[in-house]
User: What shape does this take?
Amino acid sequence: MLSDDYICDLCTKIRAMKTLIQFINESEHNNSHATGEFSRLLNDIGIAAKIVNREINKAGLADILGDYGNTNVQGEEQKKLDVFANEQFISALRHGGACCAIASEENEEAIIFDNPNSNGGRYVVAMDPLDGSSNIEVNVSIGTVFSIYRRLSPEGEPATLEDLLQKGVSMVAAGYVIYGSSTMMVYSTGKGVNGFTYDPSVGLFLLSHPNMKIPENGNIYSINEANYIYFPEGVKEE
Assistant: This one.
């Protein structure tokens, strides 16, 4: 049983943590060219992630497990949660106004928002709304993966396919949300990597893992070795 002192110390530590929005706003204040639009975009992703997290946590109780009945652009069987997550992220990004187009693994064609509010959005998002679908029904961690680019087409007009077909070096941010024993949102803008753990009691992502780094030495070996025969020769040689 946890002691009262331990619980009080834990509560004090949580209260001292920055929220996702506080962290983003502070980062933007250090950028003289920031408009606040990028903050809104990450907030929209965070909102959709909270809704997806809620459904995942009750997946064994609600009728949200199993196949949806279609295949995605990769030829994979879509799960009900795949479709649900896709709809939530599209809806959040459409109505947020900071994003003008999405490339989703669940859609064969690019999603170009045609409402005037989104035409002025400065960013496009490429994403897999729910990666690891085959893990859903065995209660193993799954996640959302996303990357963000600045649009190339003129603001005020509908986005184009070229806005989404940019090189990786043009990426302005990338990250993931992992839904597991705890739900975390991790992202980087090229200046360090920061992780935020979702606290469902207050409905906020809190900065729990600032300035994350890969340790120089570790005791876990994970390279999906079952696919060794498909690895490039350079990777095999390592």
About this structure: The first helix runs from residue 4 to 16.
